[in-house]
C-alpha cells in the first residue's frame, strides 16, 4: 500500500488537492475551539479563568508527543523500506513538533505561575516535555548539521529511533525523580475534574491542532520536493552546455552527482 | 574474540599513552566539584544535601568531554574503514571501543570519587553507594555516548551537537544514580535505584553497540 | 457569565497569564505557518522560473 504513495509526483498531485481542504478545515476548527474555550466554557471552581490556558496547553502537549512519534515512525520507514518520501516527511515534521512543544512549555509556565507562584514548575509532565524539547532540538540540529544533507537525513533517522525507544525510559525516570522529591499529594499539575463543557474545547482544539500539523507538514514536504527539483535541474543545466553559452569546453564539467 | 580484545587493548593504549583523555576527564571532575562550594556556600548542611547531585552531574559532564574523540581520529585517517571491513562485527568493534573509553574515563572517575565526596561533605555512609553507582552507571554513559559520537561523525560542530544529543539520553542514568547516592546518604536502602541503574546499563550493553554500528555504517557510506 | 467586555478581558484577574498564553501560541504557530508558506511560494516561483529558462522539459 505504501508503495502507491512512493512516487513524488503522485504525492504532489494528491497534496495539491488535499492542501486547501486541510488548511481551511484546520482554521475553521481552531476558530470553533477558541470560541468554545474562551467564551462558552465555564471558569473552573478552583482555578477560575486561568483554566482556559489548559485549552491550549494540553492539546499542544498531545501534538508534541504525537509529532515525535510521527517522526520516529517515518524514520523507521525510511531506514527499513527506504521509502523516498519517508525521510522528507520526518524532517518536515520535526520543526512543527518542536513548535508545539515550545507552546506547551510556555503555556505551562504561564499556567503554573498563578497556581503555584513560580515561573517554572518541575512537575513530572512539564519536565518530560522539556526533555522532549531537547530531543527535538537534537534531531533538528543533527539533520541540518552536515554539509551533505543525505548524511544528515540518515543520521537523523537513527537518532529519531533511539529517541523514541528512550522516551518511555525518560518518562519513567522523570516520574521516579518527581515522586522522590515531592511529598505525595501536593504538586499534581492542576487537572480540574473534566466536565463535558471543558472536554469539548480540549477535543476540538486537539483536532484543530492535528489538522494544522497535517497542513504544515504537506506545505513543508511540497517545499522540500520543489527545492530538490530545483537543485537537480540546476546541476543538470551546468553539465549539459546550453545553446546560448560558449562552446563545449564546458564538456569537461563533471556529470551531475546522484541525488537522494 | 582475539580481534575484540586486540581492538580494546589498542584503544586503551592509545587513550592512556596520550594521557590526555584520562587526565582531562579527572581534572574536569575535580575542578567542577571543587568549584561548587564557592558557588553554593560552605554550609555543611547545604552541601551534604546537594552532594549526590553535584558528584553525579560532574562525573557525567566529565565523561562527556572525551566522547568526540571516540571515533573521530579513526574516521579521519581511514582506520574506521579498516575496522568495518575486518571480520570483527562492527557491533563488537563499537563495544570494544566504548569499553576502552570507559576504562580510561568512567573507571577512574568512580575510583577518585570518594576523595571528592569528602570535599562536598557527602555523608560517609553513602560513599560506598557513590562508588557503586558510578561503577554501574558510567558504562551506560560511555555506551550511550558512543551512539551519539557515531551519529555526529563528520558534522560541522561535532562537540556541541554531541552534547545536545546526549543530554536527554543521560537523564535516566543521572536520575537513578543520584537518587541511589541520596538514598544512601539518608540511611535508606539504595538497592532499588541501583537495580534500576543496572537494568539501564545491562540494556545498553547490547542495544547501544547495535545502534552505534548502524550509525557508523551510514557514516562510512 | 460575561458581565461586560471589560470584565471579560480581565479574566478574573488572570488576564496577564491567559492572554499572553494565547498570544504566544498564536505567534509561534502562526509564525511557523507564515514562514512555511513563504518558503513554499518562493520555491514554486523559483521552480517555474527555472523551468521557463531551461525550455519545455518535465
Low-confidence segments of chain C, ≥5 residues, pLDDT <50? none
CATH class of chain A: Mainly Alpha
Question: What separation lies between the terminal Cα atoms of chain C?
Answer: 61 Å
Q: Major beta sheet of chain C, specifics?
A: none
Main interface by residue count? A-C, 40 and 30 residues
Computed Rg of chain A: 23 Å
Shape of chain A: globular
* Structural class label of chain A: mainly alpha
- Give the quaternary arrangement of the chains: heterotrimer
The radius of gyration computed from the alpha-carbon positions of chain C, rounded to a whole number of angstroms, is 22 Å
What does this molecule look like?
The complex is a heterotrimer of chains A (260), B (221) and C (58). In chain A, helix 2 packs antiparallel against helix 3 and helix 2 crosses helix 5. Chain A is globular, with a radius of gyration of 23 Å. Chain A has one domain: Four Helix Bundle (Hemerythrin (Met), subunit A) (Up-down Bundle). Chain A is built from six helices and no strands. The longest helix of chain A is centred in the C-terminal third of the chain and has 44 residues. With 260 residues, chain A is an all-alpha fold. Chain A starts with 7 loop residues before the first helix and ends in a 21-residue tail after the last helix. Chain B is mainly alpha-helical. Chain B has ten helices and no strands. In chain B, helix 2 packs parallel to helix 7 and helix 6 crosses helix 10. The longest helix of chain B has 30 residues. Chain B is elongated and about 55 Å long. Chain C is an all-alpha fold. Helices cover 78% and strands 0% of the residues of chain C. Chain C contains two helices and no strands. The longest helix of chain C has 39 residues. At the A-C interface, helix 1, helix 2, helix 3 and helix 6 of A face helix 2 of C.
Amino acid at each position: 500500500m505504501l508503495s502507491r504513495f512512493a512516487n513524488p509526483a503522485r504525492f504532489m498531485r494528491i497534496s495539491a488537492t488535499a492542501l486547501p481542504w486541510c488548511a481551511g478545515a484546520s482554521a475553521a476548527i481552531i476558530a470553533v475551539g477558541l470560541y468554545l474555550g474562551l467564551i462558552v466554557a465555564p471558569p473552573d471552581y478552583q482555578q477560575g479563568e486561568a483554566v482556559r490556558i489548559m485549552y491550549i496547553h494540553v492539546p499542544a502537549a498531545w501534538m508534541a508527543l504525537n509529532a515525535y512519534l510521527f517522526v520516529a515512525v517515518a524514520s523507521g520507514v525510511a531506514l527499513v523500506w527506504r521509502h523516498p518520501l519517508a525521510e522528507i516527511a520526518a524532517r518536515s515534521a520535526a520543526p512543527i513538533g518542536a513548535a508545539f512543544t515550545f507552546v506547551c512549555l510556555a503555556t505551562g509556565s504561564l499556567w503554573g505561575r498563578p497556581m503555584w507562584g513560580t515561573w517554572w514548575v518541575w512537575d513530572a509532565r512539564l519536565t518530560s516535555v522539556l526533555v522532549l524539547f531537547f530531543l527535538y532540538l537534537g534531531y533538528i540540529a543533527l539533520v541540518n548539521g552536515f554539509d551533505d544533507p543525505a548524511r544528515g537525513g540518515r543520521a537523523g533517522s537513527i537518532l529519531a529511533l533511539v529517541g523514541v525507544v528512550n522516551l518511555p525510559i525518560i518518562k519513567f525516570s522523570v516520574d521516579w525523580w518527581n515522586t522522590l522529591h515531592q511529598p505525595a499529594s501536593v504538586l499534581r499539575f492542576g487537572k480540574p475534574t473534566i466536565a463535558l463543557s471543558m472536554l469539548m474545547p480540549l477535543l476540538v482544539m486537539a483536532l484543530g491542532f492535528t489538522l494544522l500539523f497535517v497542513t504544515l507538514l504537506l506545505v513543508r514536504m511540497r517545499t522540500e520536493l520543489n527545492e530538490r527539483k530545483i537543485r537537480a535541474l540546476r546541476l543538470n543545466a551546468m553539465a549539459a552546455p546550453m545553446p546560448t553559452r560558449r562552446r563545449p569546453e564546458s564538456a569537461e564539467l563533471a556529470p551531475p552527482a546522484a541525488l537522494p | 574474540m582475539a580481534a575484540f580484545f586486540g581492538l580494546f587493548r589498542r584503544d586503551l593504549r592509545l587513550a592512556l599513552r596520550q594521557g590526555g583523555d584520562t587526565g582531562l576527564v579527572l581534572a574536569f571532575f575535580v575542578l567542577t566539584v571543587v568549584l561548587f562550594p564557592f558557588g553554593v556556600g560552605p554550609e555543611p548542611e547545604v552541601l551534604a544535601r546537594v552532594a549526590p547531585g553535584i558528584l553525579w552531574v560532574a562525573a557525567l559532564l566529565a565523561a562527556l568531554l572525551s566522547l568526540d574523540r571516540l571515533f573521530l581520529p579513526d574516521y579521519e585517517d581511514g582506520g574506521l574503514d579498516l575496522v568495518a571491513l575486518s571480520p570483527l562485527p562492527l557491533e563488537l568493534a563499537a563495544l570494544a571501543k566504548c569499553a576502552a573509553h570507559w576504562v580510561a574515563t568512567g573507571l577512574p572517575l568512580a575510583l577518585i570519587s570518594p576523595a571528592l565526596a569528602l570535599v562536598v561533605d557527602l555523608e560517609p555512609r553513602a560513599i560506598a553507594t557513590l562508588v557503586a553507582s558510578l561503577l554501574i552507571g558510567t558504562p551506560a554513559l560511555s555506551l550511550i555516548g558512543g551512539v551519539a559520537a557515531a551519529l555526529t561523525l563528520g558534522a560541522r560542530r561535532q562537540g556541541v551537537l554531541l552534547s545536545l544529543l546526549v543530554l536527554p539520553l543521560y537523564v535516566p542514568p543521572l536520575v537513578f544514580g543520584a537518587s541511589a547516592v541520596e538514598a544512601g546518604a539518608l540511611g535508606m536502602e539504595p538497592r532499588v535505584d541501583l537495580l534500576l541503574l543496572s537494568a539501564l546499563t545491562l540494556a545498553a550493553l547490547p542495544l547501544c553497540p547495535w545502534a552505534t554500528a548502524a550509525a557508523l555504517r551510514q557514516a562510512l557510506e | 457569565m460575561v458581565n461586560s467586555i471589560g470584565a471579560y478581558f480581565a479574566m478574573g484577574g488572570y488576564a496577564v497569564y491567559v492572554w499572553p498564553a494565547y498570544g504566544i501560541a498564536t505567534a509561534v504557530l502562526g509564525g511557523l505557518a507564515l514562514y512555511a508558506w513563504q518558503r513554499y511560494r518562493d520555491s514554486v516561483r523559483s521552480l517555474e522560473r527555472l523551468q521557463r529558462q531551461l525550455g519545455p522539459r518535465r
